[in-house]
């Protein structure tokens, strides 16, 4: 089993012998407790799924672990047990329970959180957010209304069970469960068969959902070209569960079903103003990742050139507007599982990738995410920036097998026409440039793009060979001009406009990349091909 946000593997040496380091184990326990709880398999190496053959665990070791963790941590509850693997090797499963109402920390005052498959210390601003966000992590499994599952909405219950059993994302093991077992599996009832908050939200009756704090309310507002309100609709009667609510919203708003026709010769294609996959994914995100412990409506706002979806609450800890494409952190893990199993949304970490891929390959701009003090807003523009992307998308789908990462990189390169590795790394929200290779290497291997230069100065552009295969009549641009041709263009410009600064030359050559222009002008001045005039700050050039 791969390590993840709720599972980790540790060597037996961490708790046994001269190399024992209970302080490190305590940090991991604190991180699990501050997130969603989880399990640590002690006695299994990182590169293995099983303990060593014949490994034996001393009988007194689990009790020693529990005692040391209690001495080294605060607000952390653990239960260790000895387990035997299929190869007869023993290991310890350390169950860490989520800290429901308080923050866990080490006795040295260190606060940590689980971040994907590792534990990390919280920064001061994150610690304050965790204090605020902590109640939201356990909202789903709490019982607040004391309603037996037999008193739920029977139609919604029947539909939920049926949808789960018909889903290809659900294992036969889950499908074979009876109603009670399945509700317990999805955390919709507790051990005493009371409906949890999640259960009330999904299968509760209208009056039950109305008493639940805080059931989602959605507002749709449409504006004209002067941004005056011309239409408004609210879903505030609590009659629909999240799945029904999203479907009702999609069917009600006609603006989502508008489209453009783009053409080139005999080729025609309809491009949706707002792709259904994008809309549904963003609506699901608004439902799944919002904190249900604070009041606030979900707003869908339509303008003439864009739409915005705003949901209450800020982004989960560890996720920012600058890494949302690469990083994810679930706030409502059980609700997210229901959404995923019912095919309502993508898997963890792939939702925004789907949005980026769909928008970029339709020739549109990527989504803009803004985080306010108590809200997150996503804006999607309806305008098509480049028709090339849509035409190439059909050709690529028919002739290549590219992963989503490479398609996203290609979409960005298509819009920019050419782009440096440093800028592409920023556009893809990558922390390290080395990770860029997994995005661009398949494009280079298939000769879809070309690369010039090394390191951060590598320049990527669409391959002329690839363009000739597509028979796409793409407009010629000076962004991909060869260096010797750029020099000739600069000389021609200075012949008509002597004593010009770099910025003045750039204004007359808007299609040329400014970085390329600046570099070439300075190289020409250094070689004596053109003459610099004045100081560094106000320098001008002439022939």
Q: Your description of this structure?
A:
This protein has a 6-stranded mixed β-sheet with strand order 10-9-13-14-16-15, with helices on one face. Strands 1-2-5-4 form a 4-stranded mixed β-sheet. Strands 17-19-18 form a 3-stranded antiparallel β-sheet. Helix 1 crosses helix 2 (61-72). By secondary structure, it is α+β, with helices and mostly antiparallel strands. The chain is 37% helix and 19% strand. The relative contact order is 0.06. The protein folds into 5 domains: 7-122, 2-Layer Sandwich (Methyltransferase, Cobalt-precorrin-4 Transmethylase, Domain 2), CATH 3.30.950; 149-210, no CATH class; 218-381, Heat Shock Protein 90, CATH 3.30.565; 388-475, Winged helix-like DNA-binding domain superfamily/Winged helix DNA-binding domain (Arc Repressor Mutant, subunit A, Orthogonal Bundle); 480-542, Arc Repressor Mutant, subunit A (Orthogonal Bundle), CATH 1.10.10.10.
